[in-house]
Design brief:
Length: about 240
């Protein structure tokens, strides 16, 4: 009878493990409306997704992001829907007005709440060390932190290396392939796609900072990203869903 009463009490309070799991899943997979870009550019304050266009693996903070303020792992999932776990807000580093377009070579941050609370966590990276590295590839890890520092600063770079100097200072186009570079380490955000694990939410790919160059000294598709915005004609869909 004591066990039954304890069970009933926990169920009423929502403290059962199955209840906690269901709540976590509902919040992480909660539908998020992405910002619509009227001029075709990415702006400070926009809510966006980061898409690796080769296999449509998009960055999302993993299930380990809930319940702790310690640094959190970041993974890429095969999904086409904007939800709490893969939506980021583009944030200014130096006080640029919300609504202003981001420019190539300009520092910015990527923040997320994971649809849990008002607590913001920022996409970050740091140099690899003996105790700090990506678990699968052993390369430079990417994580989420609640601490603002230079480790959370990123820049957008033109995809074509020969045009980078010319494009410096120009607005960053949305839904177009770019390179996202970590300011502190000067390494590019990447999804190798051969390092993955299975979680409660399915197959998740490791996200790292590592610049993969081909024979022409251009970044490989592992480093290619699109900043995905909302669809003008359908608020529940994204620009990548357009025919």
């Amino acid at each position: 009878q004591d066990r039954l009463r304890d069970f009933m009490r926990k169920r009423e309070r929502g403290e059962l493990l199955i209840q906690k799991i269901n709540k976590m899943q509902d919040k992480l997979l909660k539908k998020i409306q992405l910002s619509v870009s009227k001029d075709g550019f990415v702006h400070f304050g926009d809510t966006v997704m980061l898409l690796n266009p080769v296999n449509e693996s998009r960055v999302g903070n993993g299930p380990g992001t809930c319940g702790s303020l310690a640094p959190r792992e970041v993974s890429a999932v095969e999904s086409t829907d904007p939800v709490g776990r893969n939506a980021f807000c583009v944030l200014s580093v130096d006080g640029v007005t919300v609504g202003e377009p981001i420019r190539f070579g300009q520092n910015f941050r990527l923040g997320t709440t994971g649809a849990f609370s008002d607590q913001m966590f920022y996409l970050a990276s740091d140099h690899k060390s003996f105790i700090r590295f990506a678990k699968k590839s052993y390369l430079q890890q990417v994580f989420l932190t609640d601490q603002l520092s230079y480790l959370t600063c990123w820049q957008a770079t033109c995809l074509d290396p020969q045009l980078r100097l010319e494009y410096e200072g120009f607005p960053v186009p949305a839904n177009t392939k770019i390179i996202i570079t970590h300011c502190y380490t000067n390494r590019s955000l990447a999804v190798p796609r051969n390092f993955w694990t299975r979680s409660y939410f399915g197959k998740e790919y490791e996200v790292i900072c590592h610049t993969y160059l081909d024979s022409h000294k251009a970044e490989e598709d592992k480093n290619h990203w699109e900043v995905v915005t909302g669809n003008h004609s359908d608020e529940d869909r994204t620009m990548i869903d357009r025919p």
